[in-house]
Amino acid sequence: MRRCAFLIAVLSLSRPVPAQVTIVAPGSNQGQAARPSNANYGPPQVIDLDALNSMPESYQRAHVIVEGEFSQIVAGHWVLRRAGTSVLLIPGREFDPGEFSRAAGKRMEVRGIVRLLREKQYVGRPPTDLDLIEDPILPPMPAPAVELPRVSLTVLAARDRSSPDLSLPQETGGEIPRRILEEPAAYLGKTTKIVGQFRGRNLFGDLPEKSVRNSQDWVLKDGDTAIWVTGKAPRGDGWKLDLEYKGDSKTWLEVTGKPEVLNGIVYLKASRVIPTKAPGSERRGPEPR
Asked: What is the pTM of this model?
């Protein structure tokens, strides 16, 4: 009886067993079989085309907003181009690809999903493109080719931004931060000046606690809108504010920098910080640049 059981076990092991394909998708745990994506790519973040191309792996499957011009490179393939940098455009399932030719040469704001081109892979029976398994709501990507950029953007929406740049007046009451939140792409990469009240290291809870990026970042409040200021401390020749001292919140600052929006929060990368007077008080004349 034992000998019979042993033979059955040996025969069972010798039979060919259909291979189980295991796909390790970005963000999944090693050894887990691939599952269709839940299509939750998160809220869009405004980024620069240069940043996308310099660190594409950091933006894999990111939901982004970028600006550039539509340009056809080879038949059937379009790119979004800006200052010599380009990404391949793939029309989303509900996006009319005819919009590419109609918008050729115009400055466009494009919202979409970033994916890096890779060699085509097919799994299962019948064979299914791995792109469709990992991102079922997105169309499959083309195979890599010499004439195509490595980084692709599946276009979900696009709009014309070729009109003149928005004027950025020095207004208070939260006007400019609100504009940035409403039209983030219009301000991306553009120098902006915001006048507001120093609020230290979020000492008054004006912004979500976990929205801070760096321990040296600090809060500026303009009217009812608060933003994070990054890259430059609130100090200069003969003056310095304490990030932990609420008494310094009486100080008004004029901050110049380049804004970006992430998860509904404005981050201003400052290049200049100077004390100023509160809105409504006598303004000093323009300073030389």
From this structure: 0.52
